[in-house]
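Researcher: Next sequence.
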Amino acid sequence: MSSRPDRIAFQGELGAFSHMAIRQLMGPEARAIACPTFEAMFQALAAGRVDGAMVPIENTLHGSVHENYDHLLRFDLPIVGETSVRIVHNLIALPGVKARDVRRVYSHPVALNQCLQFFRDHPELEKVTYYDTAGSVKMLAEEKPADAAAIASSLAAELYGCRILKRSIEDDKENFTRFFLLRRKAPKTPVEAQRGYKTSLVFTVRNAPGVLFRALSALALRDIDLNKIESRPFKGRRWEYLFYVDFLGHTDEPAVRNALSHLRELSDMLKVLGCYPRGD
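Model: Next structure:
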């Protein structure tokens, strides 16, 4: 008897780009569980109501999703995987609605602003903000307006029985969002599988000359490839900052173990957020 499919929480409606990330990383058999907010998604996983959560963490155009960095610190939910989704915005309408019939276009404000050239080419179209990209397609399916379209993913068109009038209307084709897959517990990695892993962590250091330089030297002196560093205000501590870091390497590798031990000596707080296979 086969086990039940994993239930993976995400923020938004079915057909959102986070839903596409679930399919891309875990296959179509995974069951996507929609949540109204990012915090609700984290809470669902922490409470054991789902098996995992797909968390958008950064976008190539808009940078990091700061709320989710804060949640990673607050919730003890390890990162176990990552993937990047190409954000393709499509003009979607009900079956039978033609492009010439459309007068209003609904979508999330970020999606609308990523398709400005399309709207400059079609000044007759009114941009209407909506709470979610896939939610705007769901609204078309439920309310059936004859003069409206939505901007969303191809998956949203498929799920809600709508059709794509025009594909890939986004301004920038290098629009990607990176996602983390979270679980309640990280799996053990066999030694032979540790190559190609990435580690994410957060740390703080005291505000003194050269301390951050010495902290990052714990990685540099061991030839560990630093992929990303980002600072965030440390809530409740005036003018103090959290430093989020991604680097290549597995926490069980000797060089990484030594680097983390060295970094702990230099930092006031250090938390490993996850060690996971590097995404595509």
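Model: The first strand starts at residue 7 and ends at 11. The two ends are 32 Å apart (CA to CA).
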